[in-house]
């Protein structure tokens, strides 16, 4: 590790001001950022700790939406009765993130702002058509994820909460990379008022919607219909864990399992 300044913010406005003044990075759960700093993949001159900002925490239902504060930890989402009653698939997703330490430290806002190519939350946000609320604006999920570790967030812009429309049916299935617990391929399927949305994580440089699966499931919401879809492997990741063709096959398989789980 190397030397840096640490600021502890007591409000969203204070955090934004500190980020603008220091040119540093926001520290949420730190499960990705601290590890990157240790490896010198990230070298911010300052960190702004968000853990003391009460307004960024909490889970509540607002009409037909489930609203989760940006600093709400994965373990709290997994254990929340409000989440389990409204979107049980989201609670199950949170329960499957990383290990116990990661779930007790990591936050939904930190995960989304980092936008790891294999993170689970981006798939839920995109498939459910959620809205990301920041200290400056509201960003639709379709406009938020821009590429590998890249989002629509501007400098000194902080996620404050995420609003999820409550779907009719939803489920998430992932093929786990055993060492990291990240998704080699994860698929979140949701059927809501606006139709069927399917989001895939782990398979490409960034989370994406799988239109062929959405089209097939809009006609026939069944596991067999999902499994029959052939996904184009072009542009998918290739590494020691799997080829693009292997990941393309897994997308259909995980989608099929998600549809079966959704009921």
3D structure, described in words:
This protein has 263 residues and is α+β, with helices and mostly antiparallel strands. It has two domains: 5-165, 2-Layer Sandwich (Uridine Diphospho-n-acetylenolpyruvylglucosamine Reductase, domain 3), CATH 3.30.465.10; 169-262, Enolase-like, domain 1. The chain contains twelve helices and 14 strands. The strands form four sheets. The protein has a five-stranded antiparallel sheet. The protein has a four-stranded antiparallel sheet with strand order 11-12-13-14, sandwiched between helices. Strands 1-3-2 form a three-stranded parallel sheet, covered by helices on one side. Strand 13 (195-201) and strand 14 (208-209) form a beta hairpin. The longest helix is centred in the last third of the chain and has 19 residues, at 244-262.
Could you outline the blueprint of secondary structure elements for this entry?
Elements: E1 5-8, H1 12-22, E2 25-27, H2 33-38, E3 46-49, E4 59-62, E5 65-69, H3 74-79, H4 81-86, H5 88-95, H6 100-105, H7 108-114, H8 121-127, E6 131-134, E7 138-140, H9 141-144, E8 145-147, E9 150-151, E10 159-165, E11 169-176, E12 183-192, E13 195-201, E14 208-209, H10 211-219, H11 223-227, H12 244-262
Parallel strand pairs: 1-3, 2-3
Antiparallel strand pairs: 4-5, 5-10, 6-7, 6-10, 8-9, 11-12, 12-13, 13-14
Radius of gyration: 18 Å
CA-to-CA gap between the ends?
48 Å
Mean model confidence by pLDDT = 96
What is the succession of H and E elements? EHEHEEEHHHHHHEEHEEEEEEEHHH
**Adjacency order of strands in the biggest sheet:** 4-5-10-6-7
Unreliable spans are none
The secondary-structure class comes to alpha+beta
Helix amount = 25-40%
User: What overall form do the CA principal axes indicate?
Assistant: globular
CATH architecture of the largest domain: 2-Layer Sandwich
Number of helices, where a helix is a run of at least 4 consecutive DSSP H or I residues: 12
Query: What is the domain tally?
Result: 2
Percentage beta strand: 25-35%
């Amino acid at each position: 590790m190397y030397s840096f300044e640490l600021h502890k913010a007591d409000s969203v406005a204070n955090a934004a001001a500190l980020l603008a003044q220091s040119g540093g990075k926001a520290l949420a759960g730190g499960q990705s950022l601290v590890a990157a700093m240790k490896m010198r993949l990230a070298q911010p001159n300052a960190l702004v700790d968000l853990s003391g900002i009460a307004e960024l925490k909490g889970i509540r239902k607002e009409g037909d939406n489930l609203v989760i504060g940006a600093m709400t930890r994965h373990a709290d989402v997994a254990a929340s009765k409000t989440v389990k009653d409204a979107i049980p698939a989201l609670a199950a997703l949170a329960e499957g993130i990383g290990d116990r330490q990661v779930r007790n430290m990591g936050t939904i806002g930190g995960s989304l702002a980092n936008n790891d190519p294999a993170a689970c939350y981006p798939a839920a946000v995109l498939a459910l058509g959620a809205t990301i609320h920041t200290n400056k604006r509201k960003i639709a999920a379709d406009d938020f994820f821009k590429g590998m570790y890249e989002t629509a967030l501007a400098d000194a812009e902080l996620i404050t909460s995420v609003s999820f429309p409550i779907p009719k049916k939803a489920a998430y299935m992932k093929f786990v990379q055993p060492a990291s617990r990240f998704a080699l391929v994860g698929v979140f399927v949701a059927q809501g008022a606006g139709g069927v949305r399917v989001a895939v994580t782990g398979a490409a440089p960034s989370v994406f919607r799988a239109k062929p699966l959405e089209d097939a499931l809009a006609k026939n919401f069944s596991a067999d219909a999902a499994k029959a879809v052939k996904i184009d492997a072009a542009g998918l990741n290739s590494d020691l864990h799997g080829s693009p063709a292997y990941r393309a096959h897994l997308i259909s398989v995980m989608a099929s399992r998600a549809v079966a789980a959704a009921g």
